[in-house]
């Protein structure tokens, strides 16, 4: 057990509130968990040394700090400052059928109901999810009423200041046949540690459009997850964008709970310097007739390191499942590193499953072709790399977000060097 | 007309009041058909009428349930037989979309089929050398390069090549009754002519054909003795080759038909 | 259709008989004294005994691995006998005439005649029965070509320098739990040395047979192909049908020096246990080869037996331009469990590896591919291609793929593809519509699925493998 975890457990013991039943269960599980080492499969390629070294407090964040402006993105804004929910920002009027509740100030009935819902989707195996359970201050609940479509996207931003250790938690419920767009933003480059977990319950026939921008860099340690449960004929379209930092880790889980549900997950990561990004994506096909399409791409430059673990688990009775996972990577330097593991675990015979993974360099022929047309090598490289990722940006359903992230990606590419 | 007479003597295939369903949905609802040796019958009709189902029910495909009725092939009731035993009794179905079997060489597959057929007729199995000779000959007859014998069954074949491969099997298996399921679909005129010539070369007084098709054009090349219109699981009109021309001109709209049955489309 | 496929999958294990041969068998148990006794039975030099004892101490410190996708009752290492040999072998028969006829009959029954005149020309056999090598054929003929093919227990005496130099050089004692155990208690196995520039004049083959109850088999194989040489080596194995699980923990080390080529083929048919998982061999095997410059190692395996298989024949591509290949068919049925695959470690420039894995799961079995492809920083221009296909037969089995890809070189290219399929209703119907019986159809389709791997096997073995699969799939009538 690490000192860091011991301290976390010690702090957890002193907390007592409406969440206590969940906290106690997680605390028990946490005490039985050993601190991951290289031999722990889920952390095989990602060292937790930076977490062990971290000695952080409540942190330092200027009151004026605001989420980055996204031109044309007319969102409802939820802001966390160092893990604390900014209630002042929540004075905005909400559309009919949408409720956003800070659960500690909710009615007893809603608290009681939430106790049976929060922490039910996020699998217990995520160590830092358990840490989040015991240390998070409170849970924000977002709920869309049955058959209501909310056109205005919700934007959740975590602002994280220097030396802060923060934990945020959101629970989102889309009732039957409702629809919603949620965009999660994690930003900041200050030395800090944050765990951010969001659970999504997508009931029958409901539709979620989801984004997670895990854009913390440098000394920011960011560990979190988004976990989706899909009911019958539910639909999920999720895009995940990752920049690396000293330690940046995202776990996604897609759990099918009803038949004929669909999920599409696109993810891409661009890593430079000494950055690390680790994505663990798990899909549980527990029922028949569901479809998963996963497309994950990464570009890794300089001394950076990427880790991808994509697991598709087809349970015994999940016949007629269609699941495809594709992971493609480009390595730009001889000090960079990519570790990928696309796993299939299949217990049903009438399924269509495929996965593929490639690690390669830029297509030399394409590079030469561009150069022969008078384009400089560095420019040509940027163009080709960008094209590789741009295909996924083009697939983002929300054009405003696509146009916002595109130039950032382009800038990041422009700075990357190919060293060989 | 032969299909309305009640005589069972000399019938190659006699279908009586055949009712069949797929996933508890009734598709065939009282089909009657009488095919004499050497005759060519065309079954036409709109999408979803039950044309392909007829072929699958007769050849014993799983998932197709016979509710009532009978089908005698050369006097033998076939509806109780396993699929392979119907094949051995002389029934051949040329598939609309022949499936690929990766890694299994066409030659091996053909020899297994022919051996089974010969065994059923009480004949000796071919030796490998004998069979190779026979197979090469059949390959030439349908205009397929010999290399196709070595390739996996239908693996990477074009639409036309698959159809010719079906035809080659027909030539090798020497069936009593051939059912051609939409054999013209996906073929250009040249390819269709090759297939039609192949079929015509196999016509003989002791072999009968049922040609299932949506369009009349194949019947320009393979002249049917009788044409039947199938609608909603029953034959609603029968005639000679001129009926096909009529249908070509007028379409199927004159038949009071339910909208196309999507279920059948899924199963094809 | 499932019924018909199930029927097609029933079979009897044809090698399941027990030979009535009087054996000298150690009492069960494992301690330093047992290791000393094994060593003294073999009349080993002191250095060999020291090597074993060191390994035993290492093993005692290690823990049994639990990362594989298999479940089995814990092995009681004290309940196993670590040495068993036919009594008739005690005086070391000088020629085939002196070998117990019952032993020769045993191998004949398994389809391996040991009388040279009756043998297929072109294959030399080392027959290992429980803990000892009973006969090695064509030794003289091979020696004419300078090829050494003998039991490893002989090699320890006759070629101590080669053994000392290479034993444990590819699979170190500490490599893993079962390899360490093997180092301590290995009893026999084959030793091969092909001199520089020599093409081995015939296929070499070792045939392993476990006969005695409650014994483990711990064989050790070491093959050294000197510069520019070439050898093709085959391995087969069977065991009687028994209700108790038996342990097989072998180590195979291959050394391919510059420009040498080793082709290693295995048809593994240990007793798989019954339909409910009772009995069968626990097969925990470490196989690894090292390729020096421009050398090539090719592993081909057909795995149809064993209750539990844990096996990852691997290549360390150390030399520039070296090549590693792994072709595998693993068929599991009943309650069998297989966790098998390979590791391709690319160290040198322009190294190439190909992995083709075909897993077939039926019954209630579980079949996993586990592989690692690593491109080290020095592996400039290295290439890997991996294709993993699974075929599921029935809805009670499992097929899994755990591929690890690690790349640290930007000019290296790794491609991994995996697919899952079943024997489709359409394929079955096409075959049956053409009059082919369902059993025959399944076996044809499965054979087709495996074709890419079968074509890698040497002729004689390809026939055997095809037959084995057919027996597996066609029922005892065959």
Describe the protein in words.
The complex is a heterotrimer of chains A (420), B (268) and C (478). Chain A is α/β, with parallel strands linked by helices and 420 residues long. Chain A is built from eight helices and 19 strands. The longest helix of chain A is centred in the last third of the chain and has 18 residues, at 377-394. Chain B has a single domain (2-99, 176-267), classed as Rossmann fold. Chain B contains ten helices and twelve strands. The two termini of chain B are 31 Å apart. Chain C is of the alpha/beta class and 478 residues long. In chain C, the strands form three sheets. In chain C, strands 5, 6, 8, 10, 11, 13, 15, 16, 18, 20 and 22 form an eleven-stranded mixed sheet that branches. In chain C, a hairpin with a 2-residue loop joins strand 3 (123-129) and strand 4 (132-136). In chain C, helix 1 packs across helix 10 (438-454), helix 9 (425-433) crosses helix 10 (438-454) and helix 10 (438-454) packs antiparallel against helix 11 (459-474). The chains are: A alpha/beta (420), B alpha/beta (268), C alpha/beta (478). Chains in contact: A-C, B-C. Chain A binds chain C through residues 41, 45, 316-317, 319, 329, 331-361, 418, 420, and chain C through 67, 69, 375, 377, 390, 392-422.
Write a concise keyword list for the protein shown above.
heterotrimer; B: 268 residues; alpha/beta; Rossmann fold; 4-stranded antiparallel β-sheet; 26% strand; disordered N terminus; disordered C terminus; C: 478 residues; 10-stranded mixed β-sheet; 11 helices; 35% strand; globular
